[in-house]
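Quick one:
INPUT:
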């Protein structure tokens, strides 16, 4: 808030990836709970997933943005916006030497090295595809290229006609239309980006070679670190301790083509209403409950979101993939075909890759027919149930250091849901959660109002804050009771399972 920062924050620009769907990457908006934005702040939506904005993808990842430079990466546009916004607000950034005024030519620190300037390269194909995205999905006019110096100097993001959550839904509906054609329609297998996607570790022999090579690199690093420590010890510990050599990244096999194929199959099955093979019961163990809050999503909304996204995608797929008119060679591409090219060649599929090397599949409980969870201050776009907070199970009678959660799916019996089931050919389910002692596997005793405390709510910040205070007060109370018992010559202990009461 302005009161907290006292005007120290002059400008805040938040770039939002509209195509991110991983449950592990909810959106934390800068919009407040009351719907207002802080003074001097702007939230800008962009096509792509998390790293399409942050610059985490190298050229060629998943067969996209292939080239010798970064000029086709979607993150290049976000890079320019961040640079321009910071420079416009007075940040002392370097600039290309040819635009530096004569009276500042002596300030060599202002001059951007030529090699650094090349990092800002954007290839025209990317510009055209991005502008087509603006025209087709946002209804904005295609700007005439090149922009005049005056237009470029006063660039400001266009104010949206809808709220952030609706804008996010609109963007995922368009991407769903693309997936209906590419994933469910089977055209993925004939696209250039799919054939260019790295897949050399799909074969077991090459996989093992790559894994061995990664292990050898890590062993070399460990050897180097040992030598650094030894040299420092032999010097008698004089001077600063050495900065140890960095480790190698975790092993991540190159199987993008396989991952895309399996992701497309998952989408296709969900789109056609063919249930995925899911276990009815899952277990989640915590040896040491962390301080940050853990929430459970309300599965009641899943079927409605599925139908909404599916119907919206079906309504847009014919607009997106229009028949190519027979015309003269060299005829300009339509905005829709340019948008398809953006989805094909720039927008990555983070769900297809995420967690695959660890569990051999995609993120559990996630899917392509989910809108992204958004936090606005203390409220959330989807109702959540608080599971743990402040190192304790919510609703537990006594503080619990470790826990085993059981998650069980039950089919919902409801007239409206039954009707939707017939339309979607899917089963609506509800998630039941039970907390057990990790060592004894017995149910953890709960307070009488535990179910009310764990009720699904949009006001997650308020509930979490209340529970933190309650748990802390409960710990203090139990500590006082134990102390009084010790003074009285008694010791309060939890009775072990099957043992005599203490």
């Amino acid at each position: 808030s302005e009161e907290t920062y006292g005007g120290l924050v002059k400008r805040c620009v938040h770039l939002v990836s509209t195509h991110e769907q991983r449950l592990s990457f909810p959106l934390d908006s800068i919009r407040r709970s009351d719907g207002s934005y802080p003074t001097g702040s702007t939230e800008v939506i962009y096509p792509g997933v998390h790293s399409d904005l942050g610059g985490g993808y190298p050229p060629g990842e998943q067969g996209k943005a292939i080239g010798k430079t970064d000029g086709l990466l979607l993150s290049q546009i976000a890079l320019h916006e961040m640079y321009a916004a910071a420079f416009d607000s007075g940040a002392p950034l370097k600039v290309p030497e040819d635009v530096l005024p004569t009276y500042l030519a002596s300030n060599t620190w202002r001059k951007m090295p030529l090699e650094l300037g090349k990092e800002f390269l954007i290839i025209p194909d990317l510009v055209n595809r991005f502008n087509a995205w603006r025209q087709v999905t946002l209804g904005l006019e295609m700007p005439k290229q090149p922009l005049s110096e005056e237009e470029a100097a006063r660039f400001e993001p266009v104010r949206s006609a809808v709220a952030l959550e609706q804008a996010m839904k609109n963007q995922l509906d368009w991407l769903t239309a693309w997936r209906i054609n590419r994933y469910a329609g089977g055209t993925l297998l004939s696209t250039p980006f799919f054939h260019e996607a790295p897949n050399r570790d799909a074969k077991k022999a090459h996989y093992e070679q790559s894994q061995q090579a990664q292990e050898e690199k890590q062993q070399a690093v460990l050897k180097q670190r040992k030598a650094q420590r030894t040299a420092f010890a032999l010097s008698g510990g004089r001077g600063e301790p050495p900065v140890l050599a960095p480790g190698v990244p975790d092993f991540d096999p190159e199987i993008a083509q396989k991952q895309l194929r399996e992701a497309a199959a998952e989408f296709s099955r969900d789109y056609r209403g063919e249930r995925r093979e899911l276990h009815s019961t899952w277990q989640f163990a915590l040896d040491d409950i962390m301080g940050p809050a853990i929430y459970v999503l309300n599965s009641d909304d899943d079927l409605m979101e599925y139908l909404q996204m599916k119907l919206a995608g079906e309504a847009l797929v014919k607009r997106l993939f229009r028949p190519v008119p027979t015309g003269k060679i060299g005829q300009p591409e339509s905005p829709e075909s340019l948008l398809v090219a953006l989805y094909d060649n720039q927008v990555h599929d983070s769900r297809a890759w995420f967690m695959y090397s660890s569990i051999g599949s995609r993120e559990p409980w996630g899917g392509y027919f989910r809108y992204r969870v958004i936090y606005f201050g203390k409220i959330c776009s989807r109702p959540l149930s608080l599971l743990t907070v402040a190192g304790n199970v919510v609703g537990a009678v006594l503080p619990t250091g470790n826990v085993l959660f059981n998650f069980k799916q039950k089919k919902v019996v409801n007239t409206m849901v039954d009707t939707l089931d017939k339309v979607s050919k899917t089963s609506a389910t509800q998630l039941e959660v039970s907390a057990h002692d990790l060592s004894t596997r017995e149910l953890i005793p709960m307070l009488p109002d535990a179910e009310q405390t764990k009720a699904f709510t949009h006001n997650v910040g308020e509930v979490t804050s209340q529970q933190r205070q309650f748990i802390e007060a409960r710990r203090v109370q139990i500590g006082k009771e134990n102390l009084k018992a010790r003074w009285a010559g008694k010791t309060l202990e939890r009775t072990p399972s099957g043992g005599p009461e203490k």
